[in-house]
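Discussion board: Methods & Data

I've been asked by a reviewer to show the raw model output for two of the constructs in my manuscript, not just the figures. I'm not sure how much to include, so I'm pasting the format here to get opinions. Each protein appears as its amino acid sequence followed by a line of discrete structure tokens. Is this the kind of thing reviewers expect to see in a supplement, or should I convert it first? Here is construct A:
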Amino acid sequence: MASSDETPSQMPPGDGSVPPGKPMTVGQHIIDKGAQLTQSLKPIKQMSQHVCTFASYSHDMTRQIETHHYVSRRNQDFLQCAVYDSDDSDGRLIGVEYIISDRIFETLGPEEQKLWHSHGYEITSGLWVNPRVPEMIQKPELRDLARSYGKFWCTWQVDRGGFFSSDSCYIFWLSSACLEKFINCLQRKRGKCQKLI
């Protein structure tokens, strides 16, 4: 599946709250519980941070969604995130974001750099929230992340009710100009994240 920042075609109807399909059976729940007891799930256990923030589609800046990133640090310059639409137990996996340091970003070609967004304004404006983490603990991390860049692919357009993308996923980003235009809207939406702190 290729990523795209082109305007997507119309999504199939649906409320987007659940993927299509039948409810799980008792047997499927038992299999899942058994697997949970016997499997290590090591990659998932490497997720050590939760970040709540907001994102906008690169092809339609009027659409913003709340995102919850579960972060796994690969090294000082590279992080990978599983992105959900909420931090509830029924949160939906809606995408993936890679985060790189400014040092790595500078090595990318000009065309590739266009696909990445700076986290600077997002962090300095207070839109990037580490729920329930005391400020004195997160401050040094945020200082470093303010110089980082992210590339976020959305695979589930929860704001449009569509589980299946047309034929591609969509790149999200937040530019400082975009953020300034809808910061008041985001602060209202941010209420849920504020309650987590």
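Construct B, same format:
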Amino acid sequence: MTWPLVALLALYPLWWALGLAVLIFPIMAVPMAYALLRQHRQGIGLRLPPYFVLWLIFLAAVVIGVGALSSDPVGVVDGGAGDRILGVAFRLIEYASLTVLLLYAGNLPATGGMSQRRLVGLLAWLFAVTVAGGLLGTFAGEFGFTSPVELLLPHGVRSKGFVQSLVHPYAAQIMDLVGDPQPRPAAPWGYTNTWGNNFCLLVVWFVVAVWSYPTRRRTKVLAAGTLLAAIVPVVHSLNRGLWIGLGVAVAYVALRQALRGRFAVLIAGAAAVAVLGVAFVASPLGDVVNRRLENGKSNGVRMFLTERAITGMQQSPVIGYGSTRNTVGGRQSITVGESKGCERCGNFTVGGNGQLWQLLFAHGIVGTVSYLGFFGLGLWRFRRDSTPIGIAGSAAIVGTLVAMFWYNALVTPLAFTFLAYALLWRNWLQSPRALRGSGRFAPFTPRASAASPERALRGSGRFAPFTPRASAQPNNNTSGVPG
């Protein structure tokens, strides 16, 4: 049963327009969980991803942290557990839903479900959607509308900022970062920072889908045009975190190619980057970047929130405070607060300036170490996978770990990171058992997998024995600070 995952990803623009957006993940988690339960009842072993126990420890830390909701460290707005339980419940439900997504995506091959190519194609489709949303936000930044879900809510509920961010579709966030208000693309991901984070996570799958599988020349031309068009919203997003993330992705892929001795690919890539760089500097887009780099209005806020997160973690190091908190005043004075004339003057969210800082403050050392351990050890487990999926998936996880310093991961960025993890995990399961134990992967490629496995093995004469049955064996946002 693959329709829940297909509907979730392929129809995401529809969910966004309906006002469901991130709410669709808990909804689709229900049929996914049912499919896993039915698989278990049929006697088909439920596979668990490597180091899954660490993720369970993280979830336990999130639950245990609820007990600290009524505690307040120095320098935050006083409040009770009742005022914070809604946000905590939302995050816990989303974390649980994404856990189901990871297990569901990883177990699909056990029943002859979704192929690697199909899942990569769905992620590539979402990259195209991201580019389209970016262009919409760049050229029609004021675009927005009342969604059907929003209409169904009482006025007192839908007028709250948190609820608006969930159910009200809009194309961009309007911010004054370079001297005058500018639209920063957000559609269909809700926040500009989330848009940038997802752009970095999805672009690698777009490249794999088009250039690692047999595709028509017309498709390649359209894909190249999409990448060129994407430069415009990437620049106009004024998102330094996105720019750094793309640099990290390019550097990581280049390093992996160099380690494989594929210097021709490196030279071609470097030439393409050089040509794009010259064209970029000669265009008005270069001026936009220079203006953003010269206006680091959010730097002080980020440093202020980072200091508060570390201080809070020191006061409750084991389990944290269970959720985020709002600061008393701003970084220059406790008397400064948010107002109509200055919406970003104070009452900042501690933990809203990056996933790492939210983990430290809200979930303490236990939650932080288990979260990082799950992804870090998984990255190490799959390090020898040199297939296109292996390199792209590893690049996505590396990008996620780097972006933790300035981006929050919940909801969609973590979902795409989990799907990258699932693709790596499935590749690992499909490799011969002997190589799997040593951490090495058979050098099969997506192109070969498009045909039958037996034919690919017979034709090359270079592959280790491949047994499809081996894959059936069980084996163990608040984005308010500009980037």
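Answer (T.O., handling editor elsewhere):
This is acceptable in a supplement if you add a one-line summary per construct. For B, something like: The longest helix spans residues 81-107.
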